[in-house]
Design goal:
Helix content: 55-70%
Radius of gyration: 22 Å
Shape: globular
Largest sheet: 5 strands, parallel
Structural class: alpha/beta
Distance between the termini: 52 Å
Number of strands: 5
Strand content: 5-15%
Order of helices and strands: HEHHEHHHEHHEHEHHHHHHHH
Oligomer: single chain
Length: about 375
């Protein structure tokens, strides 16, 4: 991955390159952004720039052996840590890692703008909890204590550190604060608030902003999408290229219909339906649970925009009609209360609350708002 492959964000790229030129490379860097933005691509491009044997003034060369190996995530001095199925035994960890690592390399190469749900689906564990476990922290400590294979920088790359087991997160605090020379930590997070304060205090924050609609449109057009469709998808993406790329293959999705039937069940106080929905929700897997609630948040946000006289970005005419009716019936006050309730439910799920109880409790609270 090179900086030139990432649309826009020129000021951020220039800042990272300039920091290297001035010798001001923070040993622990925390890359933060929303899912679907260029958080992972920027971190990978920076790793390539650090390791490149023929770097230029603004980017890595993209053709040396180091650039090639980092693009494929097979460089021996780049150590990868990412969410996967839990393993408590050292021997089992080796087997889990041997299965997961090639899949993650392929995923990050093919879908650098992907999120946890995309990874879980690619990994084949979309219905199970995945995390960075305590054994990962032991491997981090082991890798930090060893010299780099090729004598240059050694990079520990941690994707989704907010999903670190608490004991694993605590175990790496010392090495985050005082790593060996030429050891760099690159942490890529999509939930800054979900990280331990002690980790945040030991890392340099690098905030990745969303792309502009023009950046995304131009990128999509370059991939062969016609101009009109690219413009529409860029508006729907809310600055998240990963979302725009998904929509190129899933533009006609009818997620709003599932949301509509859920709200109708709440409106009618159909407890039988809501209990069944909560059971189905609990069986769907953590990543799909979060995805469905994130979609609900986006619908509420669009309804609030509609209520305020603004035009929301929608996927289809049917969704637009639904959002207008929903907005007109509820009004801004109730929409904002439901918005807060859904975000609170996402917060609880991220902290491993019972998904069935969380969804049912959310539905009951929505009933109170709708009928209040």
């Amino acid at each position: 991955m090179q900086f030139s492959e990432i649309p826009g964000l020129e000021e951020l790229k220039s800042h990272l390159v300039s920091a290297y030129g001035k010798g001001k490379i923070a040993h622990a860097q925390l890359y933060v952004g929303r899912p679907g933005t260029a958080v992972l691509p920027i971190a990978l491009a920076y790793a390539s720039y650090l390791m490149c044997s023929d770097r230029g003034d603004y980017d890595s060369c993209g053709s040396c052996s180091n650039c090639y190996r980092i693009k494929k995530l097979i460089h021996p001095d780049v150590h990868l840590y990412f969410p996967k199925v839990s393993s408590t035994e050292s021997g089992k960890y080796d087997k889990v890692m041997a299965e997961a690592l090639p899949k993650f390399r392929s995923f990050a190469y093919a879908y650098p703008y992907g999120d946890l749900e995309d990874w879980a689906t690619s990994y084949g564990y979309e219905n199970k909890n995945i995390l960075i476990g305590r054994e990962d922290s032991r491997q981090m400590l082991k890798n930090v204590s060893m010299r780099s294979v090729e004598g240059g920088y050694k990079i520990l790359f941690i994707w989704y550190p907010e999903l670190m087991n608490p004991s694993a997160a605590n175990a790496i605090l010392k090495i985050l604060e005082e790593p060996p020379e030429k050891t760099i930590y690159l942490l890529v997070t999509y939930d800054y608030d979900g990280l331990l304060a002690t980790i945040k205090s030991r890392t340099q924050l690098v905030t990745i902003p969303p792309n502009t609609n023009d950046n995304i449109s131009e990128y999509l057009i370059d991939t062969g999408i016609d101009k009109e469709k690219a413009h529409k998808l860029s508006e729907l993406s809310e600055g998240k290229l990963g979302v725009a790329l998904k929509l190129t293959n899933d533009e006609d999705t009818k997620e709003y219909q599932t949301f509509q039937s859920w709200m109708l069940a709440c409106w009618n106080k159909d407890l039988t339906s809501l209990v069944r929905r909560s059971e189905d929700f609990s069986k769907s897997g953590k990543t799909k649970q979060r995805s469905s609630l994130n979609y609900a948040v986006s619908i509420i946000r669009n309804a609030v925009l509609q209520s305020g006289g603004l035009k929301p970005a929608v996927k289809s005419e049917d969704e637009s009609v639904f959002i207008k009716k929903y907005s007109d019936r509820l009004g801004t006050s109730k929409l904002e209360r439901i918005y807060l309730l859904i975000n609170e439910a996402i917060h609880h799920l991220d902290r491993n609350s019972n998904p069935r109880i969380t969804k049912l409790n959310l539905s009951l609270n929505i009933i109170r708002v709708l009928n209040g």
